[in-house]
Amino acid sequence: MAPYEPEQDTSETGELRVGRRKAARYVVPIAVAGVAAATIGLVPALATSGDPDLPKISAQKLIEKIAASDTQQLSGNVKISTDLGLPSMGGLAGGFAGGGGSGADGGEEGKGSAADPKSKLMELASGTHTLRVAADGQDKQKVSVLEDAAEYSLIHNGDDVWAYDSASNEAYHAKDAGAGKGEAEGKGKDASKDLPKDVPATPKDFAEQALKAVDGTTSVQVDGTAQVAGRDAYRLVVKPKQSGSTIGQITVAVDAETGTPLKFTLTPASGGAAVVDAGFTKVDFGKPSASTFDFTPPKGAKVTEADEHADRGGDFKGKDQVGKEFDKGELNGLRVIGEGWNSIAELKLPGGQGLPTAGSGDVPPDAQKLLDSLGDRVSGKFGTGTVFSTRLINALVTDDGKVYVGAVTKDALVKAANR
């Protein structure tokens, strides 16, 4: 019978906050090669089997164990899937990121590099993927995305950051001038500052994001045990106490020996397959071979330097297609309604108008039909608007140009707009 620890008393909330703040200091340093989405779907066959008999442990002690886990060396495979209920975002993401497309055409002049991490890694925002990961301290990490007939790798080794796309035989290179230096000394000096760094790539990365939500609106408990990638683990369950959130619960499988999160699963309040699931199928906490982090561009590969890429406009500069600078001040009135898991961001669209309509002549009728099919019309004291929904995030765009967005239900958005 797997051990079970009751939900923590709310008097421990302060201690839980301290524990998760400590946990945020001990990330396995693979975030340099993260995924840009925290939305991954459940894969039941994720190397979980059996319920090992482990000593009982409280949620507070387990969070402290995560905080004390300073895992700097590991290697293995991570299986991730995304299930937001949206079409694949690969091509669209590339356009927003300002990087090139994929394939041989991605590196054409003005289109950026097919190996640019900011666009390539966005493809992980949907579907199922297998990653091969390795880390050896702060200055050596590698993540490879394994595909049927190709491989994409992102390697951080000392002051060099390399990305290589075998499908297009293109490489992307940046210098990390802050490697091995203090944060203040290295800040703002490196060409790799625009590369993705603080987005999750491993179960521990995802777990740390979840622990930031631990407060008085959160239930935290240890709910039995599991075995992940052949290792015994405790199951830490984090879920909202409030109603109205689209998040059902977050489950983190924590390695019983090292305190390293091995698997992360986010299930929606609506039930069904999880929105987020990332877990090791194979893991080794030994020191990876030094050659793991070596990289030399293959013969004939096109190499794009990060600074050159930025100079020719490949990096996203906050401009639209005609080069007009985006004025951040136009997104005025940004504020947060509610607290905890039910927080809703409210902002105003530029111009004080809602979405363009066919009636105004701004969009073709066929495009209007497509737009209508993607959202639900709603009304209330606020007037009328359209709610666009995913399995996790919902957004209400009112006809008078206000936007309400959060991991909350459609009804919660309408209530916020009515207030």
CATH architecture of the largest domain: Clam
Classification by helices and strands: alpha+beta
Tally of DSSP helical segments:
9
Shape: globular
Backbone CA Rg: 23 Å
Helical content band: 10-25%
Q: Identify low-pLDDT runs.
A: 1-13, 20-49, 88-110, 181-197, 313-330
Question: What fraction of the residues are assigned to beta strands by DSSP?
Answer: 25-35%
Count of the domains: 2
Q: Specify the CATH class of the largest domain.
A: Mainly Beta
- Main sheet: strand order: 1-8-9-10-11-12-2-3-4-5-6-7-13
The name of the CATH topology of the largest domain is: outer membrane lipoprotein receptor (LolB), chain A
Mean pLDDT: 74
The number of E-state strands comes to 19
Q: What is the H level of CATH, i.e. the homologous superfamily of the largest domain?
A: Lipoprotein localisation LolA/LolB/LppX
Characterize this entry briefly.
The chain has 419 residues and is of the alpha+beta class. 17% of the residues lie in helices and 31% in strands. The strands form two sheets. The chain has a 13-stranded mixed sheet with strand order 1-8-9-10-11-12-2-3-4-5-6-7-13.
